[in-house]
Amino acid sequence: MIRTKSMRLNRIIMHCGMVLLALTGLGLSGCIIIPTPSHGGVGVITKETVESFEPGKTTRADVLLRLGDPAKRLEEDRIFVYQWERIHAYVISMLPQTNYDLPRPHYLGLEFASDNRVRRVRVLDASFTFFDQYPKLEEWMAEKSESSHP
Q1: Could you give the C-alpha distances from 131 to 11, 104, 110, 127, 128, in angstroms and in order?
Q2: Closest CA relative to residue 102, chosen from 85, 81, 77, 79
Q3: Residue 110's closest CA among 57, 39, 150, 149?
Q4: Rounded distance between C-alpha atoms, residue 93 and residue 33, angstroms
Q5: Structure pTM?
Q6: CA angle 114, 77, 137 (to 5 degrees)
Q7: Fewer beta carbons within 10 angstroms: which end of the chain, N or C?
Q8: Partners of 107 in the beta sheet?
């Protein structure tokens, strides 16, 4: 009888230990997002390149030679949009093989005048946000389009 009580007590302790271990594991399996300065990426357009596009001087051909074909050509080729991604954060998880980086899109908008020279340049760098910045670029494009057409 003493042996049976002892065995039951051991089972209860073992079950409590497993429950505690499972709860601890669940608690530690959460994710942590670590923001970082913008880095890495493919096809990144540098600040120096953007600054080299001088309104009134840089031609469409200059832009195409430096950057290649844009991701989008809008308003009958009057606006070029280039896009690239850079890493802005890392997601760290306690679960195996679930760590990954969080890239964010960046945009470069170039508007050309009728003489095929750059009229305006706009860069939208996505900060640590979950929202795409493309709508802000669209606002920028519409802003000048409305005022430039009487």
Answers
A1: 52, 9, 22, 9, 9
A2: 85
A3: 57
A4: 9
A5: 0.65
A6: 100
A7: C
A8: 83, 124
Q: Which of 103, 90, 149 is nearest to 130 (CA)?
A: 103
Report strand pairing: 72-74 vs 100-112: unpaired
Instruction: Classify residue 82 by burial, with Cβ atoms within 10 Å: 0-12, 13-18, 19+.
Output: buried
Q: What are the tokens at 39?
A: 């880095």
CB 141 within 8 A of CB 79: yes
β-pairing, 31-42 vs 79-93, is antiparallel
Question: pLDDT (tens digit, 9 = 90+) per residue, 99-144?
Answer: 677 778 888 999 999 999 999 999 877 554 555 667 777 777 787 6
